[in-house]
Amino acid sequence: MNRLIMITNKQKLLILAISVIFIILSAALISMLEFPKTKINDIPTKPQNLSGSQKDNKRLKEILSSIVPGDNKILYEDDFRKTSSSKNPAGTLDVRPANIQNSGDSLSYDTIYSDEEYLRPIYVNSWKQAYYRGWLYLPRKLIYARHNLFAYTGNSANILDIEGELGFYPNISIDNENYLNFLIYDFDLENAVKRGNRIVFFGKPLKKGVQIVSIKKEDINNYENYNNIIVQLCTPAGYELDYQNIALGNTGKTPEDYGIDDDTVLTYSENNSDLTKQNVRLRQELTHYISDSSQEIYFQQNGGYQTSDVLDTNIDLEEAFNSSKPLGHKLLYNNLKYKSPVYHPDWKKNYDLEWCYLPRKIYLNMKEIFVLPSDTDVLNDLYGELGFFEKSPSINKKNAGFFIKNFSVDSVHLFENNIIVTGTPCRKGVQIISIPKTTLAKNTDFAVRLVTKDLCEIDADVLKN
């Protein structure tokens, strides 16, 4: 009985000691909060009640600072669609035409969304409204523009960012727990094949359209044992048009910094008139980066930056190729290891030349072939916008030149008013070729079509002769 009483007293003493310590610590904390020590280098507290001009100034500066990186480094896309300062991040490989049609297994999929008439936007106003989420970040916009295949990954916030950055809002429920879901642009999906951790979608490229396809995770053998899934978009003969590596679980990568810096956006002039003038200048500067319209701008091969309707005509490529005549071409520049940047500091230096204008940058990065302008200044602007600052050859006025990305040219053929450039798609590389104008009818618009060896058109441009 005495033993029980002794234990109880010890407990009481312990509780009392803890209570005294708690009271002392609480008093010290309250004292620190009421009388904070002032340091010379303390950052001033952010103003809680901003005037209208100050709010406007803060937002304009935040939007501008969210578009381009803070560091003056050339950035590239890595294997997982992140930015990298390395031209050749670890794991970058040139992929041969997929050959698993016979060795792989057929894979079933459900099309949970489809719109055959859909056109991709190259600008939507929601990007400006969600600048704080990185939806205006130039390197990311270019990375997204270069791909037609997207995997839904992660939670609802990830899904929001994928669709938000694309300006695509299908308004359907996505189940990422039990399914692998893929968004595919401009593609007529014919079948899917799996082998190991690799999924290949076979079909033909189109000029418009979007679909979301869903695959059960349980249909991928040993899915839970893989670190990543490799997904490819291929022509019927297996030429790769696009790919995405999906990291399963935590990749260990830190989130990208979109450049918003509160320290730089909270400095205000004491003169309200000066602040108003500064806001006018900021709005003007912003128009060099993004559209000041609330209307969406869409990508069209024959619209926006084209002035010809020659691309409106659909042709039977197999019949056209078989009826065509070969055109001799010269390979003026050939670097199949060249990697196009997703950010170059010279773009910001020349922002007033529209080198940073997002709709234009997105448009250019959706394309693979460019008819080179004969005007030297216009040509240099195009090279600058593309981030191509290599020493390149001049083109004789008697010839027409073409700048071609991510493609190895085999031959050039002429059929009526169509110039058919055939070859093999690549993950990187640049070629500049020329053809003689003497064989082309004068005062004629020609459709220049970039075509795979199995005669699938992947891009086009217009040559005005």
Structure description:
- The protein folds into two domains: 187 residues, no CATH class; 163 residues, no CATH class.
- It is 26% helix and 29% strand.
- It is built from eleven helices and 18 strands.
- The strands form four sheets. Strands 3, 4, 6, 7, 8, 9 and 10 form a seven-stranded mixed sheet that branches.
- Helix 2 packs parallel to helix 7.
- The N terminus is likely disordered.
Largest sheet: 7 strands, mixed
Topology as a string of helices (H) and strands (E): HHEEEEEHHEHEEEEHHEHEEHHEHEEEE
Q: What structural class is derived from the secondary structure elements? A: alpha+beta
Radius of gyration, whole Å: 29 Å
Q: What is the 3D shape?
A: globular
Task: Tally the beta strands.
Answer: 18
